[in-house]
Amino acid sequence: MTDPAHDPAATLRERARGDVLEPGDAGYEDAREYDLQLGVRSGGHHVSGCALPDGGVLLDCRPMDAVRVDPGERTARVGPGATWGDVDHETEAFGPAVLGGQDPNIGVAGLTLGGVGWLSRKHGLTCDNLLAADVVTAGGDLVRASEEENEDLFWALRGGGNVGVVTSFQFRCMSSPRRYSAGRSSTPPTSSRRMCTARA
User: Fold this and answer.
1) Tens of pLDDT, residues 4-38
2) Structural domains of the chain, ranges and CATH numbers in brackets
3) pLDDT at 132
4) Residue 122 in 3-state DSSP?
5) Across 74-83, 105-114, 132-141, 171-180, least confident range
6) 139-161 pLDDT, tens digit each
7) Is the pTM above the cut of 0.70?
8) Strand partners, 60
9) What is the 3-state secondary structure of 151-189?
10) What percent of the chain has pLDDT over 70?
């Protein structure tokens, strides 16, 4: 989404982890030299455009949208630019699912901070099923955050925010339930009693 109220001075499109770790781009140097705000766009779904720094430098991670599923380990590794539609497309072939958003256009990175999905009543929040993340810190170091490594950073990623740029997420997969069709029907108030009686 684009909000005209947020107008970055420069946009850098990241295509691989190395682009974030070793940018080699004048935009980064300008941001550092002139103390410009640095923003990160992942799936680009948020309607308010909060990731777009007005007058700052935007890291556009949408090209980093790869999804790799390991059926044996029941895990999925997902790039920061992927949407839940990308994830569902890849996991569907193997059976196990990642607890993701209810709309395929929602970005993985934003929802992972605490969003819910179709399987949440049984398996919790999306962040509860995050196993690890590769993160580029503000100092330019690439580290892995999990319950065993850099635990404080892992905790912050799942709700603290603004602690680095995630270049890869690793999620736990769970068994996917049977598919059901759902819909909504509307009836005029005058027919409510008759409809309720018929459905009972």
Assistant:
1) 567 887 787 776 665 565 544 555 666 777 888 88
2) 10-60 (no CATH), 67-174 (3.30.465.10)
3) 96
4) helix
5) 171-180
6) 778 899 999 999 999 998 887 66
7) yes
8) 13, 41
9) HHHHHHHCCCCCCCEEEEEEEEEECCCCCCCCCCCCCCH
10) 68
Q: Cα 40 to the chain's mean position, in Å?
A: 12
Give CA–CA dist 165/142, Å, rounded. Answer: 9
Cβ–Cβ under 8 Å, residues 169 and 98: no
What are the E-state strand segments in the chain?
10-13, 38-41, 57-60, 67-70, 75-78, 97-98, 130-136, 142-146, 165-174
Instruction: Give the containing element (helix H, strand E) for 119.
Output: none
**Helix H or strand E encompassing 44:** none
Of the listed ranges 10-14, 118-122, 141-145, 163-167, the one predicted with least confidence: 118-122
Which 3 state secondary structure label does DSSP give 113?
Answer: coil
The DSSP output letter for 148 is S
Q: Is 123 helix (H, G, I), strand (E, B) or coil?
A: helix
What six digits make up the tokens of 43?
Answer: 């799936």
Polymer length of the chain: 200
CA distances from 25 to 69, 79, 162 (A): 32, 21, 22
Q: How far is CA 148 from the centre of its chain?
A: 22
Residue 58: both structure tokens together: 């935007």
